[in-house]
Amino acid sequence: MCLTCSIVNAELLPTGGIIYKDDYIVLHHCIDINIPGYLIISPLRHVESFSDLNQTEILQMGTIMKLAVTALEQVDGVEKVYIANFGEETTHFHMHIFPRYKWMLNQSAQDIYIGNRVDGAKLLSFYRQKCKTTPELMKENDIVAVTAYIQNLISSHISG
Ligand SMILES: [Zn+2]
Questions:
Q1: CA 45 to ligand 1 centroid distance, Å
Q2: Is 155 contained in some domain?
Q3: What tens digit of pLDDT does each residue of 62-83 get?
Q4: Is 152 within a domain?
Q5: Is residue 115 part of a domain?
Q6: Which partner from 25, 46, 70, 97 sits 20 to 30 angstroms from 38, CA to CA?
């Protein structure tokens, strides 16, 4: 079973728990990257491409992504939120919702720049490697603070 299917089937619980789940999609924290607020959103169905999603999945994913991004933009230190899909590691279709924090530009990570412009894809890749850890070593308190905030914002907008 794939990683995302394991989370959908509650065989694997990401730090911060399941932030949002309905009959179509699931939103949770990235399981092994220590960047508070780095989220993953996926359809429950194991499909591999955006083109496989049905209208309801697209609608739910878009709605919840907007609320998650809105919440992340209010988190201290977050300057920008990236959204991306790659599917190279886990084939189950998923979008990365990646907060770019101020501190990410303060470090001497020359690799993330092209000239004096930030290269978003490189930054995401660089910090995914740099902050990779094991599920047991995730910064639980920081992550739970952010996931609880997002959960509140979503539940205040979605009824039932
Ligand atoms: Zn899957």
A1: 7
A2: no
A3: 999 999 999 999 999 999 999 9
A4: no
A5: yes
A6: 46
Helix (H) or strand (E) holding 40: strand 39-43
Q: What is the CATH number of the domain that holds 110?
A: 3.30.428.10
Structural domain including 125 reads 3-142
Selection from 143, 149, 158 nearest residue 31 by Cα: 143
47's CB contacts (< 8 A; 6+ apart) are 53, 92, 93
Pairwise CA distance, residues 61 & 95, whole Å: 9
CA 40 to ligand 1 center in whole angstroms: 13
Distance 107 CA to ligand 1 centre (A): 36
Å from CA of 37 to ligand 1 middle: 22
- What's the mean pLDDT in 111-133? 91
The CA distance from 93 to 2, in Å, is 11
- Taking a 5 Å cut-off on Cβ, the residues next to ion ligand 1 are 2, 4-5, 46, 92
Ligand 1 center to residue 68 CA distance, Å? 22
| 83 Cα to the center of ligand 1, angstroms | 20
Q: How far apart are CA 111 and CA 64, in angstroms?
A: 32
Lowest mean per-residue pLDDT among 3-7, 12-16, 79-83, 135-139: 135-139
